[in-house]
Batch of 2 targets.
Target 1
Amino acid sequence: MFFGLGKKTKMVTAEEALPGRKTEMEIGVHHHVFGTPLNGTFDGMETVVFGMGCFWGAERKFWTLPGVVSTSVGYAGGFTPNPTYEEVCSGRTGHTEVVRVVYDLQDHVRGVAKGVLGEPRSDTRHAPRQRHWHAVPVVHLLRDR
């Protein structure tokens, strides 16, 4: 099967996990859209990590939200050190695909207020965006300090 599809009926154990590698995957230095760093800390910014099942396309959804200054994708959890995309998709690493979102809380709140209070309620173009606002209170759990 392609990337082990259909073999993910139970969580892999540490003993069953793929061995992985010592070398970390090389990534770019700056975000392609925002121009901000992909690694490091963001002083005064909030950070949240969303496990969304698949990061393909999910990261893009955050680019249009008010206050977002950087996003990046990767893997969380798991047993396999420095797994590849194919290894994670095999279901044999224990990882999940995640999107890290770094944002300015004040800009985000202002943008949400404008979107909710400053626009006509009959304007249905904003309905898809509003779905994302409901997930935002989770961000208070993880912060760069």
Target 2
Amino acid sequence: MRFRSSVIAFMALTLVSASSQDLHISRFDLDGRQEGFHIKFDSGRVFGWRNTADSPGVALGRMVTQNGESIGLYPLRNLPGAFFANAWDIAATPDGGAVIAAIVGYGPEMKDPTDKNRPPLKNMLLKFASNGKFISAIETGAKTHTERVVTDNKGNIYSLQDSGIDGAYPMMVEYSSSGSLVKGFMSSDSQRFFSPSSNQIVEGGDAIGPESRIWIREDRLSV
């Protein structure tokens, strides 16, 4: 996902200073799988998230502690009825844990996303403690899903949203550390965020353009 034509927004908020960057590696063995992981550096720590976990014994994410211990994150062990989870991003939490932005499927995954028989999907923010223990799942609604996520020093979560629906929706949503909805802002109907050449706001990243990011630095939430 990216903004076209270097569309950038800066939101001045009272937040902790932090920064992150990420890269993709083609191979990172975990739980006997060969699927590549995305590796992200956030708040001085290393995280990994995999596109899909399709069984309780497959970690959707991984985090490395300050002492070098590698901890797997297994949401399907704690989501009754879930068949798979697709991760979009991961972020550090101030207590040493992590939050994963994911779409969780409650039925076998379909190869064709337009299949009318596809299983029910839920858009979620999945929280984990510093020891990898599952804490909670925050459902973020059926009409949008989280593409990028970041937290502040109080544990509040900021999610960059995307949607295929018609009409306006908040592109940024804030949740409290307990998972309660605080507010949505940066409306998709604002002309500030439109591409000059189309009516698209955010779109899939590709090899010729950078993906969008959200980060917190010098008390600013930046997109």
